[in-house]
């Protein structure tokens, strides 16, 4: 019967990660590497947090401080991960001639892989060690939570934070990218998105300190579900905008090509030159300045 | 390249140091949080030549919900309810008996039984047979249907395929009771449960398990010697003897109050009384002896009488394959720490006085005296009658002198003769009619209601009774050894009651007693004194055996070499032993007590069977560990719901991803 609980907890805690891994990340080798990098960076963040926790004695006495330092470390390393990820993306696409919907998709997929890796390491470290003990006949109940097994509470929390970590990573990655875009005129939305991500991370983590585990779980989920829905629509909206934008780009390019053909239909070489020359100018979205720098340099 | 390597190695080392630093910080051991460990006494598996006894857990630990049975009514209710789930029955000692254990095992789905509490069943309970050792080859009355032990249930000779353990510590016992009670009082989850891990490796019988090396022979070291360490081989001697061991259903906890501790205590106290008297004028005392006085504490007598049997067979036919030294005082193969036994002439035994169960005061038949004893002997040996008469005359005379000495009587003629005892071994093996008298506290049947049980504890003993028997034994030994009349036995030969009190505390109570601490230094091992001999090991001597040898050696006015020593090997001579950090001339010897059917092979560090025909081949199973844990059990329905919910959640995520892919989302 205890293996039943073990597998139950395993599925609950890891189900979003496993599903995304099997159906998205596993399909592309690049995403696998990015995911592992994401996992490594989360470990790095907790490594830094542990050193701080060990060195600064007052942190050891108060859970609140430990949580704060751990969140700061995680978010700081997430930023570092973004910096490295953007460089990695730039290098992967440095031979690309132009910014397209595919490169945008790749960026989003990479962000997702980073999030899954980050989330996987989080759930594995924070919950995996607890979960392995659920194979025995005994269950763990605390005085604050005398009726619900700690394995179940932790599995539900791990599931919650697992999804949110994926969403936070994607949201923060696209928000930072958008903030770097000089032509982006809705920067306030992205600033708000980053702020909301950080605030929700703090808020939900501190909510786990509520002694009554039922209340803690309920409040956590009541806040997380709307947040997750908002996060999902935020990403969806972002992607749709990009998609529409590139669609219009393609339409414009097709129009231009038709125009060129009308002017000089017999001079193929010149048409190609013209088309190529127009690319940097056509890619008016300065979402990826680094990418464009590289593109220009190649030329 | 070299530089890069050294740099990276440096950082690698720093990383390791940091990791170590972090690892050394607080770690939560979830097992400690989930499980509470107990220190039970287990009814582990014991084997003889043809079968297995005791209990075992399955190879995989077994667990179940706790259920409390404190009364017969609780038991009846449980048996009527017959729950479908697996139970661990927590049974109070008040209702712990063979019938109830068998009912539980037969009718319920059990993971194990935990015996708790200190309530002693007023009706009596003995797990031994009604005639102990009747089937053994040394029994003098194998066809007798006499009942020596009226409370006998033969539980020791049952086998169970579920673990049964006893929680002795009150804190643990009460905690387990509370956990089990909580289960009975509330139907709500979480429930309290327990699991066991005590898989016994040995199976079938002793011969098979010895061959498979899954068991070890039961045994230890007997202690024997001659009073004052002197023996004139040409003259007869009196043999004062007792058993050094007992058993219970939970062998690790065999307090053995009335048996064998009362016999051990009275014999030590009697020897102490004689040695103290001898110390007044040693030369005069030993010169006055017409007969020597031999004493013997036979180990593992409850397991085929191997202590006395081994000694006799060694005296008669021991051959050493490899001597330890050129003086041939010790033997390495087979291991014998002393060869002094070869100088013992068994044909010179004048008579045997054995001290059996002597600690219970029989206040019914002879209430006029503080101490009463009964003399048991074989009726077909005519020498026993005058011998017992002389014992009775002596004690009657001593009583008239106002000494606290046992009033001795002959046992009821309805008894078949000698009760189960070590004296039977001498009579059977030596084939001669050796006079042998067993002094006990019972007349017809054992008055000890808890023979060989966990309840045979210190409460069972009466100090006046013990002092009376010890004084009687000492005075009988003196009178018979010096061949003097009762009126010439010095009044000073009286057992020391303070010593008896201390001895009882040590042999029946705790090994951490003052007397043991004084003689043996710091004691390591179990807190509770147990008389179960354990497995025989050439390099291990039980606390009881060591104490007896050291105490007698110390009490004998032997030459003391002030050389500082911690072990016998530190003393210069093989004829010296280390007692209280000083080397003393040896007056008491250890002698191995294990079955003659096996012999230790030092090259392969195992016991080989050398005689398949012997019927006294007792072994103890090996095991990895004996563990009992309590914990809380989650609701199985919730566990199942979690599994179903988890799988559904996974399918839901799969479905959502599939929809997003269909809608041409970014992945």
TrEMBL record, chain A:
A single GO cellular-component term on record: membrane
Mode of membrane association: Multi-pass membrane protein
Compositionally skewed regions (Basic and acidic residues) per UniProt: 260-280
Keywords: Membrane, Notch signaling pathway, Transmembrane, Transmembrane helix
Keyword Lipid metabolism: no
Full protein name: Gamma-secretase subunit aph-1
Superkingdom assignment: Eukaryota
Family of the protein in this entry: Belongs to the APH-1 family.
Nucleus listed as a keyword: no
Cellular compartment(s): Membrane
Chief place of localization: membrane
Region (Disordered): 260-299
Any GO BP annotation: Notch signaling pathway
PANTHER family linked: GAMMA-SECRETASE SUBUNIT APH-1
Regions crossing the membrane: 6-26, 33-53, 65-86, 107-128, 148-176, 188-209, 215-235
UniProtKB/TrEMBL annotation, chain B:
BP GO terms, sorted: Notch signaling pathway; protein processing
Name under which the protein is recorded: Nicastrin
Transmembrane portions of the chain: 638-659
Keyword terms of this UniProt record: Glycoprotein, Membrane, Notch signaling pathway, Signal, Transmembrane, Transmembrane helix
One Pfam family linked to the record: Nicastrin
One Gene Ontology cellular component annotation held by this UniProt entry: plasma membrane
Stated family: Belongs to the nicastrin family.
Location(s), subcellular: Membrane
Domain Nicastrin small lobe: 44-202
UniProt signal peptide: 1-27
Membrane topology qualifier: Single-pass type I membrane protein
């Amino acid at each position: 019967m205890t293996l039943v609980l073990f597998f139950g907890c395993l599925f609950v805690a890891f189900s979003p990660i496993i599903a995304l891994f099997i159906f998205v990340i596993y399909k592309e080798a690049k995403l696998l590497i990015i995911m592992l990098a994401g996992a490594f960076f989360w470990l790095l963040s907790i490594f830094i947090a542990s050193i701080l926790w060990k060195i600064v004695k007052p942190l050891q006495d108060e859970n609140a401080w430990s949580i704060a330092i751990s969140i700061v470390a995680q978010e700081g390393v997430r930023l570092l991960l973004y910096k490295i990820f953007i460089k990695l993306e730039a290098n992967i696409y440095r031979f690309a001639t132009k910014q397209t919907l595919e490169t945008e998709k790749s960026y989003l997929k990479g962000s997702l892989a980073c999030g899954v890796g980050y989330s996987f390491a989080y759930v594995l470290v924070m919950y995996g060690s607890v979960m392995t003990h659920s194979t025995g006949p005994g269950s763990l109940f605390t005085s604050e939570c005398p009726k619900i097994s700690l394995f179940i509470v932790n599995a539900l929390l791990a599931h919650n934070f697992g999804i949110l970590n994926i969403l936070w990573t994607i949201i923060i990655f696209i928000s930072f990218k958008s903030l770097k875009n000089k032509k982006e005129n809705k920067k306030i939305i992205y600033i708000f998105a980053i702020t909301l991500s950080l605030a929700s991370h703090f808020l939900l983590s501190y909510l786990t300190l509520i002694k009554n585990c039922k209340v803690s779980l309920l409040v956590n989920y009541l806040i997380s579900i709307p947040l997750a829905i908002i996060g999902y629509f935020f990403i969806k909206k972002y992607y749709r905008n990009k998609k529409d934008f590139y669609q219009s780009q393609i339409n414009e390019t097709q129009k231009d090509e038709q125009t060129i053909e009308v002017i000089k239909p017999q001079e193929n070489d010149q048409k190609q030159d013209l088309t190529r020359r127009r690319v940097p100018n056509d890619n008016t979205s300065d979402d990826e300045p680094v990418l464009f720098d590289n593109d220009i340099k190649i030329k | 390249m070299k530089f890069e390597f050294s740099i990276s190695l440096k950082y690698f080392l720093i990383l390791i140091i940091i990791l170590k630093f972090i690892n050394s910080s607080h770690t939560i051991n979830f097992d400690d949080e989930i499980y509470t460990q107990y220190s039970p006494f287990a009814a582990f598996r014991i084997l003889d030549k043809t079968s297995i006894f005791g209990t075992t857990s399955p190879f995989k630990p077994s667990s179940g919900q706790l259920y409390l049975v404190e009364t017969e009514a609780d038991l009846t209710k449980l048996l009527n309810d017959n729950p479908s789930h697996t139970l661990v029955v927590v049974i109070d000692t008040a209702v712990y008996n063979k019938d109830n254990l068998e009912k539980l095992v037969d009718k319920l789905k059990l993971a194990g039984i935990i015996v708790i509490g200190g309530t002693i069943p007023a009706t009596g309970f003995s797990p031994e047979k009604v005639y102990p050792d009747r089937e053994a080859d040394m029994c003098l009355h194998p066809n007798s249907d006499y009942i020596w032990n009226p409370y006998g249930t033969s539980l020791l000779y049952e086998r169970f395929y579920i673990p049964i353990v006893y929680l002795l510590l009150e804190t643990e016992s009460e905690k387990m009771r509370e956990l089990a009670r909580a289960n009975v009082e509330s139907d709500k989850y979480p429930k309290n449960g327990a699991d066991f891990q005590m898989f016994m490796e040995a199976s079938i019988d002793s011969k098979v398990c010895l061959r498979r090396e899954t068991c070890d022979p039961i045994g230890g070291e007997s202690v024997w010697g001659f009073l004052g360490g002197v023996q004139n081989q040409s003259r007869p001697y009196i043999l004062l003897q007792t058993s050094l061991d007992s058993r219970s259903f939970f062998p690790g906890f065999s307090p053995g109050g009335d048996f064998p501790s009362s016999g051990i205590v009275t014999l030590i106290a009697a020897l102490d009384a004689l040695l103290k008297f001898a110390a007044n004028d040693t030369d005069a005392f030993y010169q006055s002896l017409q007969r020597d006085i031999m004493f013997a504490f036979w180990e593992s007598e409850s397991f085929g009488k191997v202590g006395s049997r081994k000694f006799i067979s060694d005296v008669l036919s021991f051959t050493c394959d490899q001597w330890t030294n050129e003086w041939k005082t010790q033997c390495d193969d087979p291991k014998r720490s002393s060869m002094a036994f070869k100088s013992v002439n068994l044909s010179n035994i004048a008579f045997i006085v054995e001290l059996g169960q002597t600690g219970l005061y029989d206040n019914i038949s002879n209430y006029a005296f503080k101490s009463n004893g009964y003399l048991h002997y074989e009726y077909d040996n005519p020498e026993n009658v005058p011998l017992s008469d002389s014992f009775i005359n002596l004690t009657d005379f001593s009583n008239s002198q106002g000494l606290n000495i046992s009033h001795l009587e002959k046992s009821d003629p309805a008894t078949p003769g000698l009760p189960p005892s070590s004296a039977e071994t001498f009579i059977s093996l030596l084939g001669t009619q050796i006079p042998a008298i067993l002094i006990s506290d019972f007349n017809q049947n054992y008055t000890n209601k808890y023979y060989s049980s966990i309840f045979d504890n210190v409460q069972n003993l009466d100090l006046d009774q013990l002092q009376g028997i010890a004084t009687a034994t000492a005075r009988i030994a003196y009178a018979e050894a010096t061949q003097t009349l009762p009126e010439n036995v010095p009044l000073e030969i009286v057992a020391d009651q303070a010593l008896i009190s201390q001895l009882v505390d040590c042999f029946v109570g705790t090994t951490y007693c003052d007397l043991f601490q004084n003689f043996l230094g710091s004691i390591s091992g179990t807190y509770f004194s147990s008389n179960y001999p354990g497995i025989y090991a050439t390099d291990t001597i039980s606390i009881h055996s060591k104490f007896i040898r050291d105490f007698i050696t110390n009490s004998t006015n032997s030459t003391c070499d002030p050389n500082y020593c911690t072990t016998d090997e530190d003393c210069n001579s093989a004829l010296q032993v280390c007692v209280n950090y000083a080397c003393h001339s040896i007056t008491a010897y250890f002698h191995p007590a294990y079955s003659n059917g096996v012999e230790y092979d030092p090259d392969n560090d195992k016991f080989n069977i050398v005689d398949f025909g012997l019927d006294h081949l007792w072994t103890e199973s090996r095991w990895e560990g004996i563990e009992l844990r309590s914990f809380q059990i989650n609701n199985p329905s919730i566990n199942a719901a979690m599994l179903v919910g988890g799988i559904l959640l996974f399918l839901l995520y799969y479905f959502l991803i599939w929809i997003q892919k269909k809608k041409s989302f970014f992945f």
